[in-house]
Specification:
Elements: E1 2-9, E2 16-19, H1 21-27, E3 36-43, E4 48-54, H2 59-71, H3 87-97, E5 100-106, E6 109-110, E7 116-122, E8 131-139
Antiparallel strand pairs: 1-8, 2-7, 3-5, 3-8, 4-7, 5-6
Length: about 140
């Protein structure tokens, strides 16, 4: 069994859901060496999250953002407001979606479904660059 780990600093994204599958694959070329294994993707932030969802229709990320905004609106009467009106709503959304995803790896590729991609869900208007930790374990 082999272990590989890499940190990735993503570019700055606007609020919304953004497909980052390509960023993950490019940052961890060791995926190509793994016959069978697991890739764990973890985001080191509390107001952004990760999700696996449809990567084919541009309406999906738009609709995801609209649904999340209705579940945890910025104008809810939160007590934690010191970092801005969109901070606590971002924490709520990140708690709902989660800070990591795990993807199986087979024959040097992530085993995502035909229409699946890894999303960064940026919950702040100005969230800044986000850092991921990629941990891959498998048989080479």
């Amino acid at each position: 069994m082999s272990w590989f780990q890499q940190e990735v600093l993503l570019p700055r994204f606007s609020r919304g859901c953004h497909i980052i599958t390509r960023h993950v694959v490019e940052a961890l070329p060791e995926i190509g060496q793994v016959r069978i294994g697991l890739l764990h993707v973890f985001i080191q932030h509390t107001s952004a999250s990760l999700s696996i969802n449809e990567n084919a229709d541009a309406d999906v990320p738009h609709d995801l953002e609209k649904a999340l905004a209705s579940i945890a609106p910025d104008d809810f009467p939160y007590q934690h407001t010191i970092e801005g009106a969109d901070d606590m709503s971002g924490h709520v959304k990140a708690s709902l979606l989660g800070s990591s995803v795990t993807v199986p790896v087979r024959d040097g590729r992530m085993v995502l479904g035909t229409w699946q991609g890894i999303y960064l869900c940026e919950h702040r208007r100005q969230g800044g660059r986000r850092r991921l930790v990629l941990t891959l374990n498998g048989e080479t």
